[in-house]
Amino acid sequence: MELVEFENASALDIALADKVAKLLAADIEAKGAASLVVSGGRTPMAFFHILSQQPLDWSKVSISLADERWVDADHADSNEKLVRENLLINEAHNGHFIGLKNSSFSAVAGEAEAERALAAIGQFTVLILGMGDDGHTASLFPDAAALPLGLDTSSGRTCIGVTPTAAPHERISMTLPRLLDSQQIIIHISGAGKKQVLDQAQSPGDVEVLPIRAILNQQQAPVAIYWAK
User: Which contacts (CB < 8 Å, 24+ apart) does range 86-89 have?
Assistant: First the structure.
């Protein structure tokens, strides 16, 4: 596992955009297509803007989300809205977006349709994950009833509905085995508080207490941590 430290978020965003663009370009050249899975929240917004300006053949890049709130795409809390307004612009305006939210009445009811949509992508070129102060990543929240299923690497599942106990909105989340089906995983965090949680997660302990441990303590996919002080 690689830890890359930056003095500020701006330096991180520039370096991360360059790293991701190079990985996507390499897959486009080698395979004719590439894929990028991102996370929502405020942290990646500036990174999205910088990445959107990279001169790639974005028409060959599939873009999706590690998780999504079960709200309409025009809702203020929608991750899809965030991506469309901050990443699918500039050079990246013709990237192929695959959303997790669908017309089903609930996230659980929408699992099968979301799984079918993601099946078209195959292995992800790059997965960008955030991490909450409680150690959750994607929408794999501690204490959520669906967490054991989300962490089960033999479940055969790629998406699950999740009802967080301490966060608004029902969610749909990629499962651990689907997240790990990535050529490169990058954890994007900033601030001393997040670093403290990360350090705690790197020590032995219960994965269900700090679900980010499931990403850190595995040998299937390489992980890099991009952290700004």
Answer: 86/45, 86/48, 86/49, 86/52, 87/38, 87/48, 87/49, 87/51, 87/52, 87/63, 88/52, 88/63, 89/49, 89/52
Identify the CA nearest to 181 among candidates 16, 35, 26.
Answer: 35
Query: Quick one: which of 34, 55, 44 has its CA closest to 130?
Result: 44
Rounded to whole angstroms, what are the CA distances from 216 to 4, 183, 195, 200? Answer: 15, 15, 13, 11
* Element holding 84 (H helix, E strand): helix 79-86
Amino acid at 225: I
pTM over 0.90: yes
Q: What is the pLDDT of residue 213?
A: 98
Q: Which residue positions in the chain have pLDDT lower than 50?
A: none
Domains and CATH numbers, the chain: 2-228 (3.40.50.1360)
Q: Are strands 96-97 and 61-65 parallel, antiparallel or unpaired?
A: parallel
Q: What is the pLDDT of residue 138?
A: 97
What lies within 8 Å, CB to CB, of 84 at 6+ separation is 73, 97
Determine the Cα–Cα distance for residues 217 and 175; give it in Å rounded to an integer. Answer: 16
pLDDT tens-digit profile of 72-124? 999 999 999 999 999 999 999 999 999 999 999 999 999 999 999 999 999 99
